[in-house]
Amino acid sequence: MVSAEPWLVVGLGNPGPSYAGNRHNAGFMVLDVLAGRVGGRFKAHRGRAEVVEGRLAGERVVLAKPRSYMNESGGPVKGLRDFFKVPVERIVIVHDELDIPYGAIRLKQGGGDNGHNGLRSITKSLGDRNYLRIRFGVGRPPGRMDPAAYVLKDFSAAERRELDLHVERAADAVEALLTDGLGAAQNVFHAS
């Protein structure tokens, strides 16, 4: 049964061309693919975000990319939640994850922020951590590199060879989550 309430799917990243290829912008990359699948283009929204409204896998969706920096994502997400009247269990956040190998996709609901400033900001602004997450593995930094510096670097040449494939799989994971539910989507995407 299709709900009257939309899904709010938010990709995390930092705005501007200098950040476009960063590991931290994996969420934006996935949202660009999803926007293509719904046949829409991102447009400015008063909630300090760019949005595309449409249908994805038969479900009504609002796709969003905050125009704030990553660590201030909570304000735009809360603004969109309030504007579109989306319950927290229909909010999906797509983000980079250091503790998952590069290219692996993991789905979960709730939990801590694991040091991710974007998630910390969202949890604080929503006053709830039970939103859904699509976690895009970027792997750990090499040697003693600071994780904060690592996520603000572009994907390496070797990683870029497979990047489009991984971004498409993450977009597939969003669709599977919306249509099949968390458990079924986890069974598919955690197996690979």
Question: Which key terms come to mind for this protein?
Answer:
192 residues; alpha/beta; Rossmann fold; 7-stranded mixed beta sheet; 7 strands; EC 3.1.1.29; hydrolase activity; Pept_tRNA_hydro; Peptidyl-tRNA hydrolase; cytoplasm
Report the mean per-residue pLDDT as an integer. Answer: 94
**CATH H level, superfamily name:** Peptidyl-tRNA hydrolase
- Could you give the count of β-strands? 7
**Apparent shape:** globular
Structural class: alpha/beta
For the biggest sheet, the summary is: 7 strands, mixed
Number of helices: 6
CATH class: Alpha Beta
Beta-strand proportion: 15-25%
CATH fold label: Rossmann fold
- Tell me which CATH architecture applies here: 3-Layer(aba) Sandwich
Query: What's the structural domain tally?
Result: 1
Helicity level: 25-40%
Biggest sheet, strands in spatial order? 2-3-4-1-5-7-6
- End-to-end separation: 29 Å
Q: Give the radius of gyration.
A: 15 Å
Low-confidence runs: none
Order of helices and strands: EHEEEHEEHEHHH
Subcellular location: Cytoplasm
Site (Discriminates between blocked and unblocked aminoacyl-tRNA): 14
Family: Belongs to the PTH family.
Pfam family, one: Pept_tRNA_hydro
